[in-house]
Fold this sequence. Notes:
Among the domains are: 220 residues, no CATH class; 114 residues, no CATH class; 85 residues, Arc Repressor Mutant, subunit A, CATH 1.10.10. 61% of the residues lie in helices and 4% in strands. The radius of gyration is 36 Å and the shape is flat. By secondary structure, the protein is mainly alpha-helical. Belongs to the cullin family.
Amino acid sequence: MMQAALALVGQVFGVAEPLRFGVVGGSEGERKEHEVRLAQLREAVDTALSQKPAAKRLLVQFASHHIQQSLVKSLDVSRLVVLGLDSNDTDTAGIDAALFQERERACQSFTACVTRHIQSLQSAFANHRAVADEAMETALLRVQAGLSLLFPVSTYKDLQAVHVHILWETEKEGGSGSDDEDEDDDDEREGGDAVSKALRSVPTPTLNAYLQAVHALLAACRLDAVITLPVLKAVAITVINRKVQQRCAEEYEDEMLPDLLAWHDAVIQPFFAAFAPPSATNNTAHVQREMRLEVYKALGTLRVAELFDIIIEYPSSLPAIRDIKKWCVALLKRLLHPGPQTSDIINQYISTVKTLRTLDPSGVLLELVCSPVREYLKRRPDTVRCIVELLIAEDADDFDGGRVGGDGAAEDWLPDPIDAYLDQNESLRKDSVLDLLTSIYGSKELLVEEYAHMLAENMLQCKGFDIDEEIRTTEVLRARFGEEYLRKCAVMIKDFANSRRLHTAFERAPPYESSPPYQFSSRSDSPLHWPFTAENVRVFVLSRLFWPGLKTDNLDLPKDLETHLQYYMQKFKGQTQMQTLEFRPTMGTVDLTVELETRTLELRVPPVAAAALLKFEEQSRWDLDDLAAALNAPPAIVMDGLRALMGHGVVVQVSRGVFEVDESGSLQQGAKM
């Protein structure tokens, strides 16, 4: 049966098949014969794979081999899409409508070949879609190799030249650049005047049809993302730069940016809509923003080159200055958007500081440029973590002594100019990279304060008393900043060591009498309970004056846990006579094993989430205000706990302010989040 299946694969996809896949149509008899063989192949494949699953690999290799043979036979790369446009060749007599129509038909034929192969393979392996996908993917990889080798060298330039021509024609039809002067400028277009003149003889609909056929071929061969989109971007940037240069050079008395953006929306945006590959449909908004930014970039680059003339022409050049201001705002937005990694922004910040310190030792430019970046980094939640990672990196030994200005910085020193900022960030004026990092927060004290918050959060989230990583990090920072700056962090680490000692003593103490563990009443066959024992409950004793961000919100804990904590408080008084304990019930974490009807979950949640989950055993649905009253906690704190449970799929919001346990997981789709 396996040999029969392989033979049918060869008959259906082989190059000797009477119905050529590269030819659309075929006689009625050939099509019927092809359908019969597909049905036979489908049956043979089903039988072969059911009797011998290991045959999957052999079938994939055999099918992909025959598909590749047929595709390669249909693919005449030398005449498929290459136009032979050469800006250095003055003989362009062959560039006419007939050439583009011939290439269009070749592209359509091969696209039909690829499409029919995919359809035939999916039909033959209808019950084994994974096998079909793998076979087609293997065959296309070979075809892609041939096409991708060709496109970057010559066809890429051909497509770009045709696209640029169409964009220029579109711009003319829109009423821009139709006079004789622009006609003369057309002869100087990038890509060669001979090619430009030859393309003018080809009707625009013919060029459009050719481009659509090429892009359909690239999409069929899954090359659209790596060829089509880069081509479109390169074309758009070329045309944008030309437009800005033609329209705005040495023109200072009018604001050009509004007209340029309107032109972008009328010409560039429809261009992308017409030719963008299917793989880019979900990324259209990003591409449009990127191209609008290119308009700002082209105008800004031009105006910076003309800045001296703009200053000379003031105040008549004030509109051009407004354009520069808008460009600066757009540039700042590009840098300070959520996309880039925080570590990348910090590295660029350090490079910027070094560069501007070299250009302007006084620091006037430095303060103007770096202030917005610092403010943005302060708002990022992971900035402290990234700075700490840089400070504790093994290759960061030069942070304390690295000189921003180089060996000759002292000899090149100049006094501050009279326009230097009196309140300038002092860290920016120092030489070490450590000072540059601390300049983000303004001083070492503020940076260490932020680190203390991060350290507290990490320590309270840890399981048990294992904080070796936090200890190592704090020791490295103490060596870099000095012991006086890390005194608070040292107390926090000492608190954990004392908590470990108290926990060990508490474990060795005689057990206390308590009520039976809390048990859920609704599931007696598989009871869940809270084992409040010294082994499973760990209490962190924190020094109130040294730990930042200690919460004082109220929360009613389960009765057994309250009893356990009261017993711990008595033991603590016996250990330390001069101190008292005040429990903060909303801080810390709880490890849970939650058994639902269809799944069992291992969770780590805040105490308020665990307390709320207990209340859901009393009734299946709760209103937020009622649940907050039952827990004797603020609604905002209870909502934080519910969000944690919703994140794990345990609880869903069924209506505004109403929550319910999702036992089966079926409520997730209909929940109103």
